[in-house]
Amino acid sequence: MLKTKHKIILIVVAALLVIGALFFGGWKLASLLGIGAAAGGYKAASKQVQKQADQEKEVVNEVEKDIDNRKEKDQELQKNSENRKEKAEKLNNNQKDRQERAESLEDRLNNHIEGDNN
Known about the structure:
The protein is mainly α.
């Protein structure tokens, strides 16, 4: 059986080998020592984060399209409102003209009736 002192030395040596593999041997040697699994997990997590970011970007694009559609509808409603105001003004002016003509005809009729009475 190994003594506790020897176990600690073996653990330290293994840790130094792992650290050396990370710094000097690259990912191939590190994967041989089991570090590659962590790198694979990181890669999978990175893909998941990228997928989530793409989904969020898609949602943002849909919201922006919805906002643009609402702006277009708002502009159409604004134009319709302006057209209605113009039509109302024309109708009001026509009504005033008719009222003036009616008053003018009434004055002429009154003048004509007064002329016949004289």
